[in-house]
Structure formats: C-alpha cells, structure tokens
Automatic annotation (TrEMBL):
Keyword annotations: Electron transport, Membrane, Respiratory chain, Transit peptide, Transport
Pfam families xref list: NDUS4
The species this protein was found in: Sabulicella glaciei
InterPro entries: NADH_UbQ_FeS_4_mit-like, NDUFS4-like_sf
Keyword Transport applies: yes
UniProt cross-references to PANTHER family, sorted A to Z: NADH DEHYDROGENASE [UBIQUINONE] IRON-SULFUR PROTEIN 4, MITOCHONDRIAL (PTHR12219:SF8), NADH-UBIQUINONE OXIDOREDUCTASE (PTHR12219)
Subcellular location: Membrane
Full protein name: ETC complex I subunit
Amino acid sequence: MTEIAPLARIFMPPRPATQSGKGRSGEWVLRFAPTEKLRLDPLMGWAGSGDTMKQVYLTFPTKEAAVAYCEARGISYEVEPVPAPAPIKPKVYADNFRYGRAENWSH
C-alpha cells in the first residue's frame, strides 16, 4: 500500500467580524485537507471520521516559514493569496448628532 502525502492549505485567516483588534492577524495558518468523508454515528447521530489530521492547526509568522515546514516534511501544499485589505473610511463621531444629516439614525 502506498502512502499518499497529505495535502495542506496555507492561508492568512481574515479578522473575525466580531473583533475590532488586530491581534494575531498577521499569522499564516496551515490546515490539512480531509482524507476521508464524515460518517454518522448510528447511536448518537453525530458526524465524525477517523481522520485526525483535520484537527491539526499550525500557525507560522510568515508564509515562507509555512512553506519551508511543508517542504521539509514532504507535504504537498497550496498557498492561497492574501486578499486586499478593505479601505478604512474615516468617520467623525460628532457627525452622528449633526443637524440636517441625510442618513438614518443607527441607534
């Protein structure tokens, strides 16, 4: 039986919508692709599989470090491009209370 090299995905995760800070936003993540399908447990009905590699979640400070990790261990990988950052539209808090404003109140 031949051993199939696992396929890994290297990407930079987006900032969660519920967080406004930038902590841990510059890290690169390595996740392994699932190697088997999910199956239902006959007793409880939960979905699961015997694939333990999908639980592995490695972080790296740079993309080059993640690629070097994969190449040193013979792991085939795909690198996802970094999405362009959304432009920040500056706002003035006092404009929320300006007389004659055209926008609806948000609160």
